[in-house]
């Protein structure tokens, strides 16, 4: 296997760029190809069958780039499309739910999970956590407004803090650790921290990057070229603010963007 092949990363839109940010911070030498299905976002309100179909289509596009690994950097697509893509792909496929669940299962006491409606309704986090910790107490919370606030750039805003407080007060006070089960949520940390001080947040991007690192170390191999790993960004639609919002999620300037059709 050629370890210099890229890692393919897929998301329903731009939120998965927070996972790319984590990957580039931890594994700066790796080559990445990112596909955001910006023409059909959001996935969080769609049916299981539709999300699964979209995930398979995105996976087929990324496999044109001969990846050594595919990462579904979307909690909703991981919840509904991961098994189908794992069966169809010619390389390993990793979702963002299992790494987050693995860390959550080690927590003493109750755990919270914030996500889109589709992710929460799937029960994917509960299933993954209880597979590791059968008696775990889990409180799941759908927070549909937070995606729009993140994309609007209201990251550290009194309105965002108030909405976060309104959502988070539904969780028992005993919940001290919460999984950010949507890739948009990490950029809202300033407001989340103010809304629920003293909380430990599990960032699915960070834990997924560590899971990718482990896969590379154990079997797939690291890129051997000495240059910094290139990033290729593909979108299915290019709105007027896409580069601005994408740069916010990526943590660096989003330059060249290519359009592809699914």
List the helices and strands and how they pair.
Elements: E1 7-11, H1 17-26, E2 32-36, H2 48-62, E3 69-72, H3 75-88, E4 93-95, H4 97-104, E5 111-115, H5 117-122, H6 124-132, E6 138-142, H7 145-152, H8 158-168, E7 177-181, H9 189-195, E8 200-203, H10 204-220, E9 231-235, H11 242-250, E10 258-259
Parallel strand pairs: 1-2, 1-3, 2-9, 3-4, 5-6, 5-7, 7-8, 9-10
Helix pairs in contact: 1-10, 1-11, 2-3, 4-6, 4-10, 8-9
Q: Can you walk me through this structure?
A:
The chain is an alpha/beta fold and 262 residues long. The chain has two domains: 7-95 and 206-259, Rossmann fold (3-Layer(aba) Sandwich); 98-203, Rossmann fold (3-Layer(aba) Sandwich), CATH 3.40.50. Helix content is 44%, strand content 16%. The protein has helices at 17-26, 48-62, 75-88, 97-104, 117-122, 124-132, 145-152, 158-168, 189-195, 204-220, 242-250; strands at residues 7-11, 32-36, 69-72, 93-95, 111-115, 138-142, 177-181, 200-203, 231-235, 258-259. The protein is globular, with a radius of gyration of 17 Å. The mean pLDDT is 94.
